[in-house]
Design goal:
10 strands; four-stranded antiparallel beta sheet
Amino acid sequence: KQWYQRRVRGEHFAVISIRGRQWKVSVNDVIQSDNMGLEIGTVVTLDKVLLVGSVNYSLIGRPILPPSTVKVTAQVIEKSRGPYLRVYNQGKASRRTFFWGKTWHKMTFHESMTTMLRIQGIEVFAGDLQEVDS
């Protein structure tokens, strides 16, 4: 019921692409992206918008919508480290490892920096749109 009420009020949703990953977002959603090198509080305009929709219509880009049609803005709210990842490497046998075992093993750990973005607004400018009959 809450989802239905939110969509009936006329809010937009958008599918955006950030660093090769796609996100379906609406206003006030929080997404976690790779490190973007921005300071906390910075407002960013996301240009790669693949799709915008609402209850009444949908705009689909081929492959992206032009920036003059759609504007998605977001604010950086947090910069932190990502999840703690274990990376396990295993190699094949070599002459060096012949006496001690067939393979070698190595365990490394990795944490990448992440950026949290809050979507502030999705604006659609309908000046240069054409209606398509189905």
